[in-house]
Design brief:
The protein has helices at residues 2-18, 36-39, and strands at 42-47, 54-59, 64-69, 77-82, 91-97, 104-108, 112-113, 118-119, 123-127, 133-140, 145-152. The protein is mainly β. The strands form two sheets. Strands 1-3-5-10-11-7 form a six-stranded mixed sheet, with no helix packed on it. A five-stranded mixed sheet has the order 2-4-6-9-8, with no helix packed on it. The protein is elongated, with a radius of gyration of 19 Å.
């Protein structure tokens, strides 16, 4: 019985270590190991926004993931990511357009580091003016997505 419990514990520990995010890049770091063209993958997420405070969950398992809303956002949208399959250097781009009225986009501080103070310690909130578009670029540093740049249409 002790052997079965020990084996079960070892299996659970192995799965936990294997499924964690990686602090190494997807491409090689030693000589002749860079196989970039065949290793890197690109993802696209078409997101939608309904009335109410929505959360869009993005499973970032590609080197470069683009999130684009299929229509203008109506109100505030939260962008949430799963970091389990993220590698150091992975890129995330969020393209968003705002219709009429007040609203914006939020990035939770558990997965993102931004250039604005977190709202109630939980998320970075960016207000997008009515009838404008914005682009947010992030890079994964091994534990969180760090804001590289943001552009809001003037």
């Amino acid at each position: 019985m002790k052997k079965i419990i020990s084996l079960l514990f070892a299996l659970v520990a192995f799965v936990a270590v294997v499924s964690a995010q990686s602090v190494s890049p997807r491409y090689g770091v030693t000589e002749n190991e860079d196989n970039t063209g065949r290793v890197l993958t690109y993802g696209f997420v078409a997101a939608t926004d309904a009335a109410g405070n929505d959360t869009v969950t993005v499973n970032t398992h590609d080197f470069s993931t683009v999130v684009r809303f299929t229509a203008n956002i109506v109100d505030t949208v939260n962008i949430k990511t799963s970091l389990l399959r993220a590698f150091t250097g992975d890129l995330l781009t969020v393209l968003v357009s705002k219709g009429t009225g007040a609203g914006g986009i939020r990035f939770p501080t558990a997965s993102f580091t931004c250039d604005v103070a977190a709202v109630a310690g939980a998320s970075c909130r960016y207000t997008i003016p009515a009838n404008k578009s914005a682009v947010f670029h992030f890079v994964f540093n091994g534990s969180r997505y760090i804001l590289l740049s943001k552009v809001v249409q003037p």
